[in-house]
Amino acid sequence: MKLRWGFIDVLVVLYALIPVLWIVSLSFKDPSTITDGSLLPTKWTLNNYTGIFRNDDFIRGLINSIGIGLIATFVAMVFGTMAAYAIARLTFPGKRLLIGFSLLIAMFPQISLVTPLFQIERTLGLFNTWPGLILPYITFALPLTIYTLSAFFKEIPTELERAATMDGATPFQAFWKVIVPLAVPGMVTTAILAFIFCWNDFLFAISLTSSSAARTAPATISFFTGSSQFEDPTGSIAAAAVVITIPIVIFVLFFQRRIVAGLTSGAVKG
Amino acid sequence: MIGEGGRGERRLALWLCAPATIVMIAVTGWPILYSFLLSLRRADLRFPEDQEWIGLANYATVLGNAYWWTAFGVTLLITVVSVVIELVLGMLVAVAMYRTVVGRGLVRTVVLIPYGIVTVAAAYGWKYAWTPGTGWLANLLPEGTAPLTQQGPSIAIIILAEVWKTTPFMALLLMTGLALVPEELLRAASMDGANRWQRFTKIVLPLMKPAILVALLFRTLDAFRIFDNIYVLTNGAQNTSSVSIIAYHNLIGGLNLGIGSTMSVLILISVAIIAFVFIRVFGAAAPGSEPR
């Protein structure tokens, strides 16, 4: 019995790891051996990595990804925390409507926004700028933050705020001084999920940008062509894929327990 | 609820919800309306002077187009096949994560790796793995086969990439459902002589139905908008476009806003129908509507 589950465990681990090991291995292969098709590199090199870090577009893409992701996450967290608190604690008309509306956005086909946003952002001068990507990212991160945070808020006992308001605190003080400090673990989790969503996005990133001014790292990679037309970009793409993936994977593994709680409480994909 | 100050509470709630609501409406509401209006116009950025209201003509163009229906069929095929595989595989992984004693932490951690990986990065991994010469998987195939240059094998690889990436998410959702099944019930059933399969189908599955439906609803709608994997793996070559890919090419390559918007509206309608079927026909509880 134990053995059988052990066997399935091994399969699960292989399932998750082999595709990752493959792309890592590809990124360490020397150009002369990149087409040898072996699972492990026969001739190791770091050139693919030094190459992409000398590529200005990729560096720029990383900066864009980090900047845009952090700003969008921050704004979505502030707005999301406010709305989630109202949903978890207050009675007000239109609450179900707000929940339904954010659910609608969570399930929304993003491509349906791409065409109109492309045109609207060109008119407003937001096309190919940071705010042009930050706005849709905030919008799609909001349902996630609202759902996950309101689930976390509901777990904090109401008595705490009641005691605070009895002692003369305003509802805002009760929220800011009592609830927020207790909700920090949940908020960290939510922020990570929101950031992963922004970091992962590709559709908006290639549709609403036209140069490295705002193009994020995943979009930049898809424009890699190699330094000359005779050079195959496989090694650079693999190295870049590893670079944009590893930090997130380490993050996810480090906060594993919390992320599982966050993903399942919100039941919204990040 | 805090306090009994009804009106004050309502006003506070309004202020708290306002920023989030305004952003969500501004970024989705107006564009959707705009997209609907554009879909009724001839609006091709290559011919800016030639714009006029043309009623439903764009809809006739799209719905009468074989490429659209191929893309629609491919999208449905990918959605149905990958969600079914994910459900079965996800259930297996969920049970493994739930029941396993040895290396529990390791499995629960490792299974999150596909979730954490940027979809585009993973898609490049799959692409190179199946490229003849370069890839270790392609080299297992008979000499001279290039799976990503044929429709059937390409779709199979797209499904593989999709399944690999999203099964962990499915497994996590299912595992929370699994945790709701009372152990005593299973023990009682096994004392009454129910075997493992009977306990699973007669007790576990019915109790997990709500969790399964929510997971299926989310994954179906998510799979229906598939874009990143196809963009990297085939970019829609050999009739492997999804509806999202074809709408994207219409906009960025074709610069035809009218047709692109028509496709946007049609995709939106399809997604609404899928959600409606899940919620009304199968009775999936929309998350957030749970009684408090």
Account of the protein in words:
The complex is a heterodimer of chains A (270) and B (292). With 270 residues, chain A is mainly alpha-helical. Chain A has a single domain, classed as MetI-like fold. Chain A has helices at residues 2-27, 47-53, 56-89, 95-106, 111-124, 130-154, 159-166, 171-200, 203-207, 217-222, 234-254, 256-266. Chain A is globular and about 75 Å long. The model of chain A has no long low-confidence stretch (mean pLDDT 86). By secondary structure, chain B is an all-alpha fold. Chain B has one domain (23-281): Orthogonal Bundle (MetI-like fold). Helices cover 70% and strands 1% of the residues of chain B. Chain B contains 12 helices and 2 strands. The radius of gyration of chain B is 24 Å and the shape is globular. The two termini of chain B are 12 Å apart. Classes of the chains: A mainly alpha (270), B mainly alpha (292). At the A-B interface, helix 1, helix 3, helix 4, helix 5 and helix 6 of A face helix 1, helix 3, helix 4, helix 5 and helix 6 of B. Chain A: Pfam families: BPD_transp_1. Chain A: The chain crosses the membrane at residues 7-28, 62-85, 97-118, 130-153, 174-197, 237-255. Chain A: Residues 62-255 form the ABC transmembrane type-1 domain. Chain A: Its main location: membrane.
